[in-house]
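Revision sheet: structure tokens.
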Amino acid sequence: MRALIIGAALAVSISTVAMAEEKAENKTLVPNLSAVDFTFMTDTEYNVTNETVFTDFGVTAEMKGIDLSLTPQFSWDDQEISNVEFAAGYTFNVNDSFGIRPYGEFNLDKDFNVGDKIVGVKTTYNF
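Predicted:
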């Protein structure tokens, strides 16, 4: 139930931001989804030591440096979703080459019980 509430809150947050920007620019009620960058990702890995296969898949929505993501993990061995990760972050571009991104992650297990809660900082350097 918590996951459903969190997922609904993320969806409402994304659509509210998109609608607010569109209304401010064009004075219409139609959301401007082109202002939000959506990315779908997959990552499949085989653990040679444990002989297990997992696929992480999900969607990320990014707008003006703020990103929100939902990434479930599918276990091919158990044929079930073993973890669901909700994440949010904001990228501060210090200059054209260097960026800092504080982020937070909230994980749920396959029964939607609360798992790891993670806070971190990532850095990027483009050259």
